[in-house]
Amino acid sequence: MKLSGWGRFPQIESEGHYFETRNQLRNSLEKNRECIAYARGRSYGDSALNERVIFTHRFDKILAFDPTEGILNCESGVTLAEIIEIFLPRGWFLCVTPGTKFVSIGGAIASDVHGKNHHKVGCFSECVISFDLMLPGGDIVHCNRKENSELFHATCGGMGLTGIILEATIRLQPLKSAYIREKIIRCKNLEEVLYQFEENYKIPYSVAWIDCLAKGDNQARSVLMLGEHADSGKLIPPLERAFSIPFNSPAFLINKFSVSLFNHLYYNKQPLSVDGRATPITSFFYPLDRIGNWNRMYGSKGFTQYQLVMPKQASKDGLSEVLDRISASGLGSFLAVLKLLGPQNSNTLSFPMEGYTLALDFKIQQQLFPLLDTLDRIVLHYGGRVYLTKDVRMPKETFRSGYPNWTTFSEIRERYRMNHKFNSLQSRRLGV
């Protein structure tokens, strides 16, 4: 079968294996050589691609829930969307969520995803209490911060390279409403949006859309969106009108002129400020989920998302230099997002560090890859790194410079013989 990540690049022929029980998975691992877990296909690049994959989406049962503490135990194929559908009407929501709800629990752990509240609560792993992990030989180990802690910290953010996550126990947060009190601030440039992020640090959720093609005094003009959970209101969000992109859009529609026009219109239609607007929780966290197959708008060749993070003290200069290069290239997109991140955690390969992260989508084209190589050099110069979950082309040297604990991770993989069983196109490329 043809298989790809969400960016639809690359596409490879792959042999898929399913399981619904632990014994079925164990037998599958015994029969096959190298493989990698493939959950809901929402990793953008090649981190879940191999000539053989283990599909986890049939392993998707809710196992237990403690309504007094908000403790949920479920199989790894359960999606965040399914958790929201079941537990939001009961007054519970995810402590940390990425920008799509269509990812699995196993995928969220393997990527150690982060959200709009990282500066306050950290990555998804902060709400993970424990999980069961199947190792290459079929043995199952229970991992938490005290028991098999080395495997716990290697698996959270380990991109599926330590084994197959079977089930997990996570903590949900209580809510009184399915609405967010949203505050919007229009910022004229990079300096102003960074100032507003810091000025509004106490607000739990923050994210900014930025114009990645704006230059000079208008560089990174932005719309900053802030939010906190409402104290009252219905626990069932309103139904949202959704639509789907039925076919690949012509790639030529996304160019510097169309992106520049869209960015100009989007920025100028926003009010200077809005405070206290009631926004449905799903609209605030998952705006793109309303557009089915939105990855088709980049054309048949697909796209990649380049997401970087830089230390806070270097972010202003580093981001300015990155945006200068993108603007000069004319290859930017209308999906450019800036977030404030909090302190780095103790997981071996987790992406966030205290500072700012910028994510941009680029359609696949020949002139893109030299630009991304240039951006790599800028990111490393300022002490940053590139996100593995979005990556599809990072060179080995960039990875090793940005992730100093890669040697520890490789040693763990070798000791448990994980590198003889669990590999992806990405792991081979990065030599990990």
Instruction: Give the mean pLDDT.
Output: 95
Class by helix and strand content?
Answer: alpha+beta
Indicate the radius of gyration in whole angstroms.
Answer: 21 Å
- CATH class term of the largest domain: Alpha Beta
Distance between the termini: 26 Å
In terms of topology, how is this protein built?
Layout: E1 2-3, E2 12-13, E3 15-18, H1 22-31, E4 36-38, E5 52-55, E6 62-66, E7 71-75, H2 80-87, E8 92-94, H3 105-111, H4 118-121, E9 128-134, E10 140-143, H5 149-155, E11 164-174, E12 179-187, H6 190-199, E13 205-210, E14 222-229, E15 243-244, H7 256-269, E16 273-280, H8 281-285, E17 291-292, E18 303-311, H9 312-329, E19 336-341, E20 355-363, H10 368-381, E21 385-386, H11 396-402, H12 406-415, H13 425-430
Helix pairs in contact: 9-10
Could you explain the architecture of this structure?
The chain has 432 residues and is of the alpha+beta class. The protein has 2 domains: 62-175, Uridine Diphospho-n-acetylenolpyruvylglucosamine Reductase, domain 3 (2-Layer Sandwich), CATH 3.30.465; 179-395, Alpha-Beta Plaits (2-Layer Sandwich), CATH 3.30.70.2520. Helices cover 28% and strands 26% of the residues. The chain is built from 13 helices and 21 strands. Strands 16-12-14-13-19-20-18-21 form an 8-stranded antiparallel β-sheet. A hairpin with a 5-residue loop joins strand 9 and strand 10 (140-143). Helix 9 runs antiparallel to helix 10. The protein is globular and about 60 Å long. The model has no long low-confidence stretch (mean pLDDT 95).
